[in-house]
Amino acid sequence: xxxxxxxxxxxxxxxxxxxxxxxxxxxxxxxxxxxxxxxxxxxxxxxxxxxxxxxxxxxxxxxxxxxxxxxxxxxxxxxxxxxxxxxxxxxxxxxxxxxxxxxxxxxxxxxxxxxxxxxxxxxxxxxxxxxxxxxx
Length: 136
Fold this sequence. Notes:
With 136 residues, this protein is mainly alpha-helical. The protein has helices at residues 2-14, 16-41, 43-62, 66-96, 102-135.
């Protein structure tokens, strides 16, 4: 028993760089599949991508340095990330059962609240950075 586990460890470590690159390649393809699914099935995600496409270039232009640009664009990216997590929660809950249940509602409401907080964060961050530039 012990020898077989040692052989498995050795064979997986023998794959080395090729194994790591294969895993990274698969992870990249799975990520693209997830983005594609979100674009196909999630209206909110599509709207937030449009928001990102409009505001990200504006953030690059309005930011005075790399840090400001990173914070402006980062606030937008955070919305996309949290929307993806929210969509994953909703899909998992619906997969388990479409029957109404208080815990299912709570899970979906919490995910929605996380997206809402991120959306509130965007104008707050932008206002703080831009107010300093234009009013300070």
